[in-house]
Structures are given as C-alpha cells and as structure tokens.
C-alpha cells in the first residue's frame, strides 16, 4: 500500500518510538492567506532533532523542532505556536509569505497523539475507508471519532488507486491524468508487446493476467478499475474480479451494443444484474471525446464524479 505523505510521516514517527525514541507530532491546526501548508499537515520530530514531514515547507521548521525538543524534555504538556508575517519570530525564522499558521505540538503518547491512531489510519487506508481524527486543542489530546464544531477536525480520505487493464494508447494518456489527481495507478497487461517499459516510463507494469493481478492488488472502496483492451479474454476476467470487490468505479470501453454483449458474458461468471449495473459502459462521461487523450479525460472525469458521489446511476439494461 502506498502511503500518503502525512501518513508516511506518522508511520516514521511510530517507527522512531518503537526504537526507543521520544517523539513529538506537530500539526498545522489553522492556516490563513498564502501559508505554504494546509491545515492538518504533520511534522514528526525525534528527541535528537531528526524530523520528517513539513508544516511550512521549510519556513518555520527549525523553530518548531526547537519547541518540540523542549516539550519532549518535559513529561506532560502541549505547545501551541503561532507564526505570521507580522511576527518578529516569524520574520526571524523566515515566514515572510504573507500567511499565518498555528501549529500544535503534541507528544506521541496516549495522552497526546496516540500510536493507536496511526495504526487505525493505516488499517482504514488499506480498506479504502475514510477516518476522522479529533483534537482538543486545549488539552492537546487526539482521538479517532466523529466531527464536531468544538475541536480541531482532521479528515483522512483513503488513498485512491486505479488499475487499468490494457497497456493501450488510451492508458498512456490516462496514467498521467490519474497521477495528477493524486491517484496511484497500475497498468495490467500480459501481452508483452503492449506492456513494454518504454511505453510507460517510470511505471511498474503488472504482466499477469487481470484476474491474478487484481487478486494481488485487492481492490477496496477507494479503488477504480477500467478495462481498455476490447479483448473479452482480458477485460471480462478483470471486470468479474473487480465486481466482487468494493471498488467505487468500474468501467470498460466499447459501444453500447458491445456492452450489452459484455453483460451477457459477465452473467456467466455468476454475477447478477445489480452487480452488472456497476460497470460503466462505454467508459467515460459523454463529452464528445475523440482520440485517446480526450477519451482518457472523459474517463478521469467520470471516475472523479463517482468518487465524489455525483455520478448518475447507469440505466437498467
């Protein structure tokens, strides 16, 4: 599982604690103007000054690390730090971008930022579920729970993933679009002529058959699967595997006539009409797309609409 930047920072902090270090977690709890990092961004600081993550892109990290080490030298407590363009400290440490941030520094401990939160966030990410971390800014205590209007709320969306079946021209256009949306992408194709490394520079291709590849990839509720080969031997087994998962978006290329035939073939896998209705076909929003780049754009747009819950259901076949 590929971790988001902030979750990777928290996982690093947990590793330091397991190795015997005292660790602090600094979190941006408010950001205004041109502040370089959004609210919820994390910086992990070890007792010896080693750090991971960022709360300001380098502007105030040195000051925050100093305060975190002072906190770790104590047995209790929390630090709330404010930096803005008009603050003497902010100018001294380099925050001259016109923004303002408030950073909360907690110990990685049960009465601060518990390690159990990190474990829970990782489990939710693997399952494709959203989580919310709530922090009492006065006490400096965090927990996983429901949102309210009193405390600082940090929503954690699961990392989105996309599996593309078919290393075809449309896939070459869709991969960078998906990656630009922050979606981790894999391309599956057992055909060596298509799945050539030079055609997808920097992307690790999966050359197994789609059903085998998806079984290992394990689609979850934050996963999308798109079949692009036009070859039933490849598309159908992949779609059948996807339909047995919680994937939020499943689609395939092909005309409406071909999609009707696809439904008949997929029914032979023991899938009922409710399951078959989950397959978007033809894949992509109806934007009059022509050529691989525009078709890829239409698929990326439909995938995004599905993720945000604004995609109209498919008409019954």
From TrEMBL:
Native source species: Polymorphobacter multimanifer
Domain of life: Bacteria
Cited Pfam families: XdhC_C, XdhC_CoxI
Protein name: Xanthine dehydrogenase accessory factor
Domain XdhC- CoxI per the UniProt entry, residue ranges: 16-77
Boundaries of every XdhC Rossmann domain copy: 162-303
Gene3D superfamilies: NAD(P)-binding Rossmann-like Domain
